[in-house]
């Protein structure tokens, strides 16, 4: 069943057009990757889906309903939750409070503080420290945990490898695999292609704000991906 | 002993200043909005109490029960209909609009109530005093004011420190855009913050009206003292606001004791000294904002 259906989505920052008619589908339970170079529009795309940018009503359908243009909090109520680029941990809040902010809308579901601590034990150990005292990798765990606390049906994950060591990135993708196995649908944006293609069932490549390539990772050649990524 | 008395009066006066400053500090903290009409709203609340006292023959302290929720509703409505539209465009639009509101409120009050000075009479408590021994005494009403200020600040600190809504206030203060993405409805949250702000300043306005006379144009002075208390204490710290109010109050009473005309001036001078030596205030939370 198609959970998310994006049709001809365009998005603007003021007069600057960042997305040009992007179409994409994500089935329930699937992990889909969106790759692309810097400035290809990946982050804009996720922010548009999460309600941070104005988009037309019919551009986004979620579970069969048109939801484009709804405010972010209404989308969180439906289960569309963003783990933002750069982690965006709240510095005045402790680790536990950062997680609790994720649960602000009190959407029903399996995720609780205890379950997030089980997934990322370091967050439990450091729960009373300020969120920004954590290392980069731990902050990324916190950002993912905060997203999970909202009990998402579709988790949008933006560039979790940003500025992190490969071994940490591997660990984070391992955790995302666990989240996926529990039935949460994932839409993952990534610049670091190798990691994300290992976990994704399908991949879209964005270039200059439009879809340049779509396919199943195993059936795409490096040359195809490279051509779509950088332009032929 | 006379000096001790002076300092004590100053401390209690500081409680009133903290009441004026709390709401100002709260909304600046949560949404970086400077409300230049803050003082005028306190005077509006005092006039509202005058009307209720006359119409319903209430004690002004009983009128509080009505005025506080009314001013809270005014704050909610103002924020949702007007001020929310100005946020995210820098600090200037909100400054201009609240400055305009300040003038509108003052002139509205002048038209409605004339330029006569008013006072609220709670029936005796304002002149009662409690002897502390050794010739020292404190006014019952200033003591009550101080106690109310401390209780309110404790309560507010608990709400902000422990509750879900308090967490949302702090998250929105850190990074409003990300807070919105996490599901916080900022329009509502800011409406709530302004409702709280005006509810607290309504108490301050009525207390002021019991302590002293006021006119339609008493608001801007109150705003100035509130700003000074907030800045002395340090932005973002409620306890700092109380300490700031107390320092300002003590400076004013000590100055006035040195020479009757020096009270307000001494307060301003202490404020300037703090601004020079510790521009971020005495208790500012150092926050990493990125």
CATH topology group of chain B: ABC transporter involved in vitamin B12 uptake, BtuC
Oligomerization category of the chains in this entry? heterodimer
The tally of structural domains of chain A comes to: 1
Please give the CATH class of chain B.
Answer: Mainly Alpha
- Give the SSE string of chain B: HHHHEEHHHHHHH
The Cα radius of gyration of chain A reads 17 Å
Mean pLDDT of chain B equals 92
CATH class division of chain A:
Alpha Beta
Please give the alpha-carbon distance between the first and last residues of chain A.
34 Å
Number of domains of chain B: 1
Mean pLDDT of chain A: 94
The shape of chain B, in one word, is globular
Query: Major sheet of chain B: size, sense and barrel closure?
Result: 2 strands, antiparallel
- Class inferred from helices and paired strands of chain A: alpha/beta
Could you please describe the fold and organization of this structure?
The complex is a heterodimer of chains A (about 230) and B (about 290). Chain A is α/β, with parallel strands linked by helices and about 230 residues long. Chain A has one domain: 3-Layer(aba) Sandwich (Rossmann fold). Chain A has helices at about 40-50, 70-80, 95-100, 115-120, 120-125, 135-150, 165-180, 195-200, 220-230, and strands at about 1-15, 15-25, 30-35, 60, 65, 80-85, 155-160, 185-190, 200-205, 210-215. Chain A has a six-stranded mixed sheet with strand order 6-7-8-3-9-10, sandwiched between helices. A four-stranded antiparallel sheet of chain A has the order 2-1-4-5, covered by helices on one side. In chain A, a hairpin with a 2-residue loop joins strand 4 and strand 5. Chain A is globular. The model of chain A has no long low-confidence stretch (mean pLDDT about 95). By secondary structure, chain B is mostly helical. Chain B has one domain: ABC transporter involved in vitamin B12 uptake, BtuC. In chain B, strands 1-2 form a two-stranded antiparallel sheet. In chain B, strand 1 (about 130-135) and strand 2 (about 135-140) form a beta hairpin. In chain B, helix 1 (about 1-30) crosses helix 9 (about 220-235) and helix 2 (about 40-55) crosses helix 8 (about 185-210). Chain B is globular, with a radius of gyration of 19 Å. The mean pLDDT of chain B is about 90. The chains are: A alpha/beta (about 230), B mainly alpha (about 290). Chains A and B meet through helix 2 and helix 3 of A and helix 6 and helix 7 of B.
